Amino acid sequence: MAPTAPRPRTTTRDPEDIARRLTAWLGTRLPGAKAVGVTVPESNGMSSETLLFDVEHPNHPPPLSASLEREVLPACALRLAADPAAYTVFPVYDMPRQYRTMRVVAQYSDLPVPKVLWLEEDPGPLGAPFFVMERVEGRVPPDVMPYTYEGNWLHAASDADRAHLEAASIGLLARLHDQVPPEEAEFLVFPGEGDALRRHVTAQRAYYDWVVDGRTRSPLIEAAFDRLEQLWPRNPGPPVLNWGDARIGNVVYDGFEPAAVLDWEMAALAPREVDLGWTVYLHRFFQDLTVAFGQRGLPDFLRRDRVEARYAELTGHTPRDMDFHTLYAALRHAIVMLRVAYRQVHFGEAAVPADPDTLILHHGSLRAMVQGSYWD
Questions:
Q1: Which residues, by range, are in coiled-coil regions (predicted)?
Q2: Residues contacting 351, CB < 8 A, separation 6+
Q3: Where do the domains of the chain lie?
Q4: Which terminus of the chain has a smaller tally of CB atoms within 10 A, N or C?
Q5: d(CA 77, CA 38)
Q6: What homologous superfamily is domain 15-134 in, according to CATH?
Q7: Are the beta carbons of 275 and 248 closer than 8 angstroms?
Q8: Is pLDDT of 59 > 80?
């Protein structure tokens, strides 16, 4: 999907129907409460859905004055498992796993994780499991149009402000990796044999097999898996709690300071560099797109050498095998992009080309990584 293209369909749900059902469910948790101002943000994700709403209640919290009959509780955000009818990006949406991860991160680290309020595992009320958390106000670097494009708040910021945001964002990873005891996140270990990295890659292979089931396989993705084996780290290092989708587009900023860390559905126990590779590559993904569309972008922002140096300074751990981990990030992203492209085909928004690799938006950069020329 080019940055200027319309967003593909991500749901078949009716927002008004969801709002009515949400109010009915809310009354079971807070009798008399009502969900008001229910909206779906334009930045709604490509996997789980997000709803924003306020809670109105006649008695809680107590009125500020006798002249007020009702108050509004803290603003809320709801994460709803993907619509099964919308050709989902991932095969499984484990909302209890996300909910538990956020609780662990909040308990054992000082990361600004939104407070989780309720978990609903019964799909009956809204059609799928969901959880509710407090909503944090602020700004999020956009994906569409990408924050590397001219005209958005991050691109327009001063070099000093962007440098502050970059350093603070890398600090999130450093603190997460150092502060949360791995044994408290053992529920995030992937099944299978081998160490945490081997299990992580094996899970990605299984995901790829699911994506291409019944369709033409991608020679480029399979070449990338083969290249990973050639670059495999001799010592991957001990696993830590990985955020998973570790990128600035999943952070709410107050000014240029992180105010909330969002989107934990890809969390896992893995080497530190899995998160770092994802952070580095996802920025390069947007930067490469921006350059391809004739803009300069932000070439000095979140550069690989600066990310590695800052992380080493904060943790004492010098990132290693980053050619492997940035390739792995590009490969993982390619599988997601392939699934998103097939969803567009499913809804009649695109046609299948003769070469399935061209469905991968960043197939050029992925091929360069496989060939070992991307970072030259």
A1: none
A2: 345
A3: 15-134, 153-371
A4: C
A5: 10
A6: Phosphorylase Kinase; domain 1 (3.30.200.20)
A7: no
A8: no
- Model confidence at 12: pLDDT above 90: no
Residue 362's closest CA among 346, 340, 343? 340
The one catalytic residue among 54, 122, 245, 357: 245
Residue 3 Cα to chain centre, angstroms = 18
Q: CA 201, CA 62: separation in Å to the nearest integer?
A: 52
28 by Cβ neighbours in 10 Å (0-12 / 13-18 / 19+) ranks as exposed
Q: Residue 15 has what pLDDT?
A: 72
Q: What's the CATH fold of domain 153-371? A: Aminoglycoside 3'-phosphotransferase; Chain: A, domain 2 (3.90.1200)
**Residue whose token pair is 């809804």:** 347
Catalytic (active site) residue 357: no
Would you tell me how many other CB atoms lie within 10 Å of the CB of residue 91?
Answer: 11
Residue 259: closest CA among 95, 107, 141, 108: 141
Q: Is 72 in a helix, a strand, or coil?
A: strand
Element counts in the chain: helices (H) and strands (E) = 10, 10
Q: What backbone torsions phi and psi does residue 163 show, to the nearest 5 degrees?
A: -65, -35
What span, in angstroms and rounded, lies between the C-alpha atoms of 77 and 35? 11
Residue 302: both structure tokens together: 């979140």
DSSP string, 286-339: HHHHHHHTT----TTSS-HHHHHHHHHHHHS-----HHHHHHHHHHHHHHHHHH
The phi and psi torsions of 76 (rounded to 5 degrees) equal: -125, 155
Q: Which long-range contacts (CB under 8 A, 24 or more apart) does 148-155 make?
A: 148/283, 148/286, 148/287, 148/289, 148/290, 148/295, 148/297, 148/298, 148/301, 149/3, 149/290, 149/293, 149/295, 149/297, 150/295, 154/298, 155/298
Burial zone of 146 (CB within 10 Å; 0-12 exposed, 13-18 middle, 19+ buried): buried
